[in-house]
């Protein structure tokens, strides 16, 4: 029976090599799939080569010491180190640059370990180097050393090991992480000025209601025939009520916030909340565009480095936080698993825009789907920038108009009340 030499990704991210006996290549692929392996390369070898390989494997197994309890799972989490996103990006960039310059993995990690300015990354590099030196795969070592390297990162590292393009895939992953960090920074910056305006408006309103309006009330009531206008009386009543029962409203607001957070964090309610977020007037398009950028970048990285399309879709789904969008990807995975083209599966879900589907279809027709996915990611990244700029352009004038109307109304009522009082005094 023919023998096939394979290199494949294990179910837990490790790279495995070995021989499989099968009647033909198709049967060998099915055997590997039953074992939970995703083949990266599969080559038929001669009978002599297969015999030598098996003999060598047998001798190696006999020479080995009693096995240690060492699996692909990270084991105890108590000794793991947590890293900030900036540290993960720095580690990825440094390592990809050194691997790209020709260094092997262990010397590259040693060089990072000896760097003085890397801080906590030195210990991370040391632990990973020790794991790699003991024969652990790089992707598995990442899992064991730090939870900050998520499942997607470790899977990409395993794909890079299997395909021999670890430096390239780490460089792309660094770019992807920097893109996400920049997006988060832009969102925060976009909300700073509106938040400042809202706080300033609330502060001015509090000054009006608690200081200026009570003083104006005393002035008008002390004047002969002085009478407060209806809107001013309403504002005074509201001010007195809030002053007497402010703690009740504070408790209600805090309780409502805690209740909403508990409802939102409940696993049963997460799909509903994720669907609501996608329909929000301003935030919905931003969330969708961010998902498309992340999905396309991830798919381009995985497919471009030799992972099968179905496995790439599964990893992209695992990296998606929004459960409503993850449901859409599950539908795509099911249809691709049944033999449909990726573009056709996207059409059937009805949740992907036509432009994205067209670009994927072009990649399928030309056989360069990774390049099409990357071009689509760049396009939707530009769309995301436009959405953010549009939100900033709408939020600022809207808040200014609302604050101006609110404060202007109170100022008008106060000035009108003063003029009425003065007119009555002149009449007397």
Task: Briefly characterize the structure.
By secondary structure, the protein is mainly α. Helix content is 74%, strand content 5%.
Core attributes:
428 residues, mainly alpha, 3-stranded antiparallel β-sheet, 16 helices, elongated
How would you characterize the overall build of this protein?
By secondary structure, this protein is mainly alpha-helical. 74% of the residues lie in helices and 5% in strands. The chain has helices spanning 25-34, 47-63, 85-100, 105-113, 121-133, 138-145, 151-163, 166-222, 230-265, 270-279, 283-304, 309-318, 323-337, 342-349, 354-366, 369-427; strands spanning 3-9, 15-21, 38-45. The protein has a three-stranded antiparallel beta sheet with strand order 2-1-3. Helix 4 runs antiparallel to helix 5 (121-133), helix 12 packs antiparallel against helix 13 and helix 15 runs antiparallel to helix 16 (369-427). It is a multi-pass membrane protein. Belongs to the GSP F family. The chain crosses the membrane at residues 187-213, 244-263, 391-415. It comes from Haloferula sargassicola.
- List SSEs in N-to-C order: EEHEHHHHHHHHHHHHHHH
Termini separation comes to 118 Å
Beta-strand content bin: 5-15%
Q: Give the count of helical stretches.
A: 16
Give the rounded overall mean pLDDT.
77
Query: What topology, given as strand order, has the largest sheet?
Result: 2-1-3
Instruction: Give the fraction of residues assigned to helices.
Output: over 70%
Oligomer: single chain
Q: How many individual β-strands?
A: 3
Instruction: Give the overall silhouette.
Output: elongated
State the major sheet: 3 strands, antiparallel
Q: Which regions contain 5 or more consecutive residues with pLDDT less than 50? A: 64-78
Alpha-beta classification: mainly alpha
How large is the radius of gyration? 32 Å
């Amino acid at each position: 029976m023919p023998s096939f030499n394979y290199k494949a990704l294990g179910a837990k991210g490790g790279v495995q090599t070995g021989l499989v006996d099968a009647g033909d290549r198709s049967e060998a692929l099915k055997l590997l799939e039953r074992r939970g392996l995703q083949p990266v390369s599969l080559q038929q070898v001669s009978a002599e080569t297969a015999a030598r390989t098996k003999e060598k494997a047998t001798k190696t197994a006999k020479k080995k010491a009693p096995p240690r309890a060492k699996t692909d799972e990270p084991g105890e989490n108590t000794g793991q180190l947590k890293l900030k996103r900036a540290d993960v990006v720095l580690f990825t960039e440094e390592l990809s640059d050194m691997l790209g310059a020709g260094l092997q993995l262990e010397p590259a990690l040693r060089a990072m370990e000896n760097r003085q300015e890397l801080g906590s990354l030195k210990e991370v590099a040391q632990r990973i180097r020790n794991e790699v030196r003991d024969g652990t795969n790089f992707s598995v070592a990442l899992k064991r050393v730090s939870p900050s390297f998520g499942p997607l990162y470790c899977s990409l590292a395993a794909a890079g090991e299997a395909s021999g393009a670890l430096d390239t895939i780490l460089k792309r992953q660094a770019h992807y992480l920097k893109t996400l960090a920049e997006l988060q920074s832009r969102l925060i910056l976009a909300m700073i000025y509106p938040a400042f305006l809202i706080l300033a408006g609330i502060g001015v309103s509090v000054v009006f209601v608690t200081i200026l309006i009570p003083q104006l009330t005393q002035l008008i009531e002390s004047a002969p025939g002085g009478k407060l206008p209806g809107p001013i009386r309403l504002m005074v009543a509201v001010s007195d009520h809030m002053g007497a029962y402010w703690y009740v409203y504070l408790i209600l607001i805090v309780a409502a916030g805690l209740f909403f957070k508990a409802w939102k964090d409940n696993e049963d309610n997460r799909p509903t909340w994720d669907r609501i977020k996608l329909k929000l007037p301003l935030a919905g398009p931003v969330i969708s565009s961010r998902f498309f950028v992340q999905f396309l970048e991830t798919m381009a990285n995985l497919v471009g480095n030799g992972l099968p399309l179905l496995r790439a879709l599964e990893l992209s789904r695992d990296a998606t936080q929004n459960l409503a969008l993850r449901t859409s990807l599950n539908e795509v995975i099911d249809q691709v698993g049944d033999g449909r083209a990726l573009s056709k599966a996207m059409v059937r879900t009805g949740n992907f825009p036509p432009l994205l589907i067209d670009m994927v279809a072009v990649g399928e027709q030309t056989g360069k789907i990774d390049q099409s996915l990357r071009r689509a990611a760049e396009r939707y990244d530009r769309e995301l920038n436009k959405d953010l700029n549009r939100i900033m352009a709408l939020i600022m004038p809207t808040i200014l108009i609302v604050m101006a109307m609110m404060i202007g109304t109170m100022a008008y009522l106060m000035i009108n009340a003063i003029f009425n009082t003065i007119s009555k005094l002149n009449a007397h």
